[in-house]
Specification:
single chain, alpha+beta, Alpha-Beta Plaits, 5-stranded antiparallel beta sheet, 5 helices, 30% helix, DUF1697 domain-containing protein, DUF1697
Length: 183
């Protein structure tokens, strides 16, 4: 094992549709796995912790198993290290751009590779567009149509690439990165 590294866990589909995950309990579960400096950020399923574990797959499996045992349903977990999230934010086509009034910039974090994807990829209605992707993160513009938010592109990403996906607005991802650096 190497030195402890800060990880960011993005939990998929929590606190929506009856899938309640209390952040205090989430912190307890993660700390119970021996992960250090466990913290959470807002109630949409973002957690920070330190670990010397170098096998990401094994770490994700341990976390997902413990979460399923504790909460009673599967919670796909997508991990990034702080340097990985920094690189994904820096690679974003949204850096230095302001969204139009009817747009929202989003980053969709995935559990596996998005290699081979043909971008841009657009919905038939034009309510979302995947501008491009880094290795494991898609960069999405959501558009409001007739004043309503568009459909969620995550199911399309999951089906196309055979991965789990969870999104965060770009400005939220920037805040998550900043919060991950606080002790």
């Amino acid at each position: 094992m190497s030195a402890d590294q800060t990880h960011i866990a993005f939990l998929r589909a929590v606190n929506v549709g009856g899938r309640k995950v209390e952040m205090a309990r989430l912190r307890e579960v993660l700390a119970g796995l021996g992960l250090g400096s466990v913290r959470t950020y807002i109630a949409s399923g973002n957690a920070f912790f330190t670990s010397a574990e170098t096998d990401r797959t094994a770490l994700v499996e341990r976390i997902e198993h413990a979460l399923a045992d504790s909460f009673g349903f599967a919670i796909p977990t997508i991990l990034r290290t702080v340097p990985e999230l920094e690189a994904e934010l820096a690679a974003s086509p949204f850096v230095g751009r302001e969204p139009a009034e009817d747009e929202r910039f989003s980053m969709v974090f995935t559990s596996g590779s998005l290699a081979g994807g043909e971008f841009p990829m657009r919905s038939a209605k034009g309510d979302w567009e995947i501008l491009g992707a880094s290795e494991r993160t898609a960069y999405v513009i959501w558009r409001r149509l007739n004043g309503r938010p568009g459909a969620n592109p995550n199911p399309v990403i999951e089906k196309t690439f055979g991965v789990y996906a969870t999104g965060r607005f770009f400005h939220t991802a920037e805040k998550i990165l900043a919060a991950s650096r606080k002790a």
